Amino acid sequence: MKDRTARLVSGALGSAILMIALVGVMWAVEVVDYVEDGRLDRYGIVAHEPDGLTGIVFAPFLHAGFGHLMANSLPLLILGFVAAIRGIGRFLAASLVIIVVSGLGVWFTSPPNTLTIGASGLVFGYFGYVVARGLFDRRALDIVLGVVVAVLYYSILWGALPSQPGISWQGHLFGLIGGVLAAWLLRRRAS
């Protein structure tokens, strides 16, 4: 029991440090982007353009100003922390799946030449990952975390529907799909 508690505390500390560092990098990038008059934003995902595919890697770190970044920071910290608590390796693998699925979904389904940036695909992805991880892994802690996250954040699901011009519902929807897919791909195999 003592060893399990120590692992949980260690995992929580590592998750917190990782998420603070990740969001810190996003803030640093936005400061540079601000100083450069928004020039970094062009490295986002440009729909249907072959060169726009490279934006899949960069888009989560780019934001359309500090307000956009502020809106993503707190849910990213919280949901990312909960997603990472089961292990940094699984978290990084889940993040990669989410980024690729969300990015490709945006690239294929957004109107041609649309530029998409922001970490909301990750936010929706971590939501989907945490909720689905409880369903697929069937561990008590994962089920409880999934239920708590679903109850506290269920309202974000409206963002995965086309509703507001200028907001990439595609990034939200495919981030959510990427999170569920990551939970399934990284599920604990029955022994």
TrEMBL record:
<feature type="transmembrane region" description="Helical">
    <location>
        <begin position="143"/>
        <end position="161"/>
    </location>
</feature>
<feature type="domain" description="Peptidase S54 rhomboid">
    <location>
        <begin position="53"/>
        <end position="188"/>
    </location>
</feature>
<feature type="transmembrane region" description="Helical">
    <location>
        <begin position="61"/>
        <end position="84"/>
    </location>
</feature>
<feature type="transmembrane region" description="Helical">
    <location>
        <begin position="115"/>
        <end position="136"/>
    </location>
</feature>
<feature type="transmembrane region" description="Helical">
    <location>
        <begin position="91"/>
        <end position="109"/>
    </location>
</feature>
<feature type="transmembrane region" description="Helical">
    <location>
        <begin position="12"/>
        <end position="29"/>
    </location>
</feature>
<keyword id="KW-1133">Transmembrane helix</keyword>
<dbReference type="InterPro" id="IPR050925">
    <property type="entry name" value="Rhomboid_protease_S54"/>
</dbReference>
<dbReference type="InterPro" id="IPR035952">
    <property type="entry name" value="Rhomboid-like_sf"/>
</dbReference>
<dbReference type="Pfam" id="PF01694">
    <property type="entry name" value="Rhomboid"/>
</dbReference>
<keyword id="KW-0472">Membrane</keyword>
<feature type="transmembrane region" description="Helical">
    <location>
        <begin position="167"/>
        <end position="186"/>
    </location>
</feature>
<keyword id="KW-0812">Transmembrane</keyword>
<dbReference type="InterPro" id="IPR022764">
    <property type="entry name" value="Peptidase_S54_rhomboid_dom"/>
</dbReference>
<dbReference type="GO" id="GO:0008233">
    <property type="term" value="F:peptidase activity"/>
</dbReference>
<keyword id="KW-0645">Protease</keyword>
<protein>
    <submittedName>
        <fullName>Rhomboid family intramembrane serine protease</fullName>
    </submittedName>
</protein>
<keyword id="KW-0378">Hydrolase</keyword>
<dbReference type="GO" id="GO:0006508">
    <property type="term" value="P:proteolysis"/>
</dbReference>
